[in-house]
Design brief:
Layout (H helix, E strand, L loop, with lengths): L8 E3 L7 H13 L7 E3 L6 E6 L1 E2 L4 E3 L1 E6 L2 E6 L9 E4 L2 E3 L3 E2 L5 E3 L9 E5 L2 E5 L7 E4 L2 E3 L4 E4 L3
Antiparallel strand pairs: 1-16, 2-13, 3-12, 4-5, 5-11, 6-7, 8-9, 8-12, 10-11, 13-16, 14-15
Length: about 160
């Protein structure tokens, strides 16, 4: 096995309901230059977690993670794109305010090492990119545009 985690994939074409929706997708596609640049995406099937133990990087820096458990196996997923304002950190059951919460890396910084392992509840986005450099939009009418597949693929950071 050559990877340490699964990589998500989504087809967003079914979410386009209007000409304005399609225009927004086309504009975004051009801004990120197809598959060239990543962006944040909310996976409505998996976007939050409660009371997750953080992973220690240094005594004062901790990584937000989400743990998945199944049949005695655990997968620890680093959360690199927490939603701003959604992260609540607790130490020994009490809410605390860390020195910083980096919404671009998912790292939580304390002014000094916490007395016990911190936990967090949070929402998160997934870093993704388009999985193509062309967007074949079919216009069936002025207000009816169709793209059969607009695939996004998770960017592993």
């Amino acid at each position: 096995m050559n990877w340490s985690q699964a990589r998500g994939r989504w087809n967003i074409s079914t979410g386009i309901r209007s000409r304005a929706d399609m225009a927004a997708v086309i504009a975004h596609f051009h801004v990120v230059k197809g598959r060239a640049y990543s962006f944040r995406f909310k996976d409505w099937n998996d976007f939050d977690a409660a009371d997750q133990p953080l992973l220690q990087i240094t005594p004062a820096i901790w990584q937000i993670v989400k743990r998945y458990n199944r049949s005695g196996y655990e997968h620890v997923r680093a959360i690199t794109k927490p939603v701003a304002g959604s992260v609540a950190v607790k130490i020994a059951g009490s809410l605390v305010t860390p020195a910083a919460i980096d919404v671009l890396t998912g790292r939580v910084t304390f002014t000094s090492a916490p007395a016990s392992a911190p936990m967090a509840s949070f929402q998160f986005d997934v870093p993704v990119r388009f999985d193509t450099d062309s967007l074949p939009v079919q216009s069936d009418a002025w207000d009816l545009q169709i793209v059969n597949n607009i695939d996004l693929v998770e960017v592993l950071e």
